[in-house]
Hints:
Elements: E1 2-8, E2 12-19, E3 24-32, E4 40-45, E5 48-53, H1 59-72, E6 84-89, E7 100-101, H2 104-112, H3 121-134, E8 140-144, H4 154-157, H5 163-169, H6 178-192, E9 201-206, E10 210-216, E11 219-223, H7 244-253, H8 258-267, H9 270-275, H10 280-288, H11 292-316, E12 321-325, H12 326-331, H13 333-339, H14 352-356, E13 370-373, H15 378-387
The chain binds adenosine-5'-diphosphate (ADP).
Amino acid sequence: MKILVINSGSSSLKFSLFDMKNEEVLAKGAIERISEENSEGIFVSGGEKERIKRRIKDHFEAVIWAEEILSERKILENFDSLSAIGHRVVHGGEEFTDSVLIDERVTKKIRSLFHLAPLHNPANLAGIEAFFRKAPSVLQVAVFDTAFHKTIPLKASVYALKYEFYEKYKIKRYGFHGISHRYVAKEAAKYLKKPLKDLNLITLHLGNGASVAAIGGGESVDTSMGMTPLEGLVMGTRCGDLDPGVLIYLMQEKGMDADDIERVLNKESGLKGLCGMNDLREIKRAFDAGDERAKLALEIFCYRIKKYIGAYFAVLSRVDALVFTAGIGENSSFVREEVLRDMEFFGLKIDKEANDSGKTLISSCDSKVKVLVVKTDEEIEIARECLRFL
Ligand code: ADP
């Protein structure tokens, strides 16, 4: 049984093909810079990586090319032979609290949520529509990044604005990275040999985008991202938490309009805004070489994470484990050590050697709270969701 998982961005289409008999990855690929002169495909299968340049006009052409590549290499006959296609959809709004089989009604609803995620949902839908054109008879499933957070109670999700903003405009905390938070929570439960429903966890997804989730009894009870993925932690290029008064000041006194603000907050802030770099490896190298701004950026980044951990300890009252994941969470022992420095009061003690040597369990044996590093796998989580509909 073969399942294709799709992550469709505004100018890219990423895919992973699974054989679900043993959850084996048969191939992975990414078609990048769609609609630009220099579009390119990167394909990986059987340990071989290929880069092919080809002008790709739109998502539909990208889908046709992906099929061609897979069939030429005899990995898959064609997309019609798939058992299902799983699409990552960023924003499910209040409508979608679980994965759904996609039909016309669902695509209409995803469209109606464009205003909540203007950077993501239109791109996700472009992928869905392209696959509907190419392989209309194959079952397609939408898996939402917001769905895992549906259990967050109103006290943690409704902003203290006029209540009608929530009622009329649906302005509230939805939270994101839910597919990853749920996957690593399940993996942590397996590692700890306990049912997820008996666990209280703090999961830290630290990549270019970053968010933290408080998981109580296996369910999301709070998370740092809000109505959009801008709130919360400091990210590669996004600011995270900010006094809304700053925006009023920038608009009234500095002549910025909504487009300027959107650009600044999404693309020119965060680590990049602070030190001119958004790749953590580069920032760490600059820090090691004595760059003061890189040092400050790292301090602010880690301090914000620490603050959320403290807050979520208060929210959960008992914490069984902290789970680090995604590019930075999985790979930066430096960030993990800084974040966990002086947290003995919370029952958190890091084992420096385990942390530096890439182990899963990085807390010391006398740490009351376990600390785990778990590699996230959003693709397999989406593929498993598809199985529920087969
Ligand atoms: P995305 O949100 O784009 O999926 P990733 O999860 O791939 O992001 O994470 C990207 C971040 O992870 C970058 O800041 C990158 O520098 C960082 N990263 C990746 N590998 C390492 C590493 N070995 N050490 C430190 N940071 C790393």
